[in-house]
Amino acid sequence: MARQVSVVGVGYLGLVHAVCLAHHGHPVVALDTDEQRIAGLRDGVLPFFEPGLEEIFEQAQARGLLHFTTDPADLADAEVHFLCVGTPQSADGRHTDTSYVEAAASRLAPYLSRDALVVGKSTVPVGTANALAARLRNLTGREVRLAWSPEFVRQGRCVHDTLEPDRIVYGVGGSRANDDIAVLDEIFAPQYAAGADRVVVDYATAELVKAAANAYLATKISFINAVAELCEASGADALALADAIGLDRRIGRDFLSPGLGFGGGCLPKDLNGLGARAEEYDAARPAALLREVDAINDKARTNVVELALDLCDGDLYGKRVAILGAAFKPHTDDVRDSPALDVASICRALGAQVVVHDPIALDNARRAHPELSYRDNVLDACNKADVVLHLTEWPQYAELDPAQLATVVGRACIVDGRHGLDPDRWSDAGWRYRAFGRPLAA
Ligand code: UGA
Question: Which residues bind NAD(+) (predicted)?
Answer without folding.
Answer: 32, 37, 87, 123, 269, 336
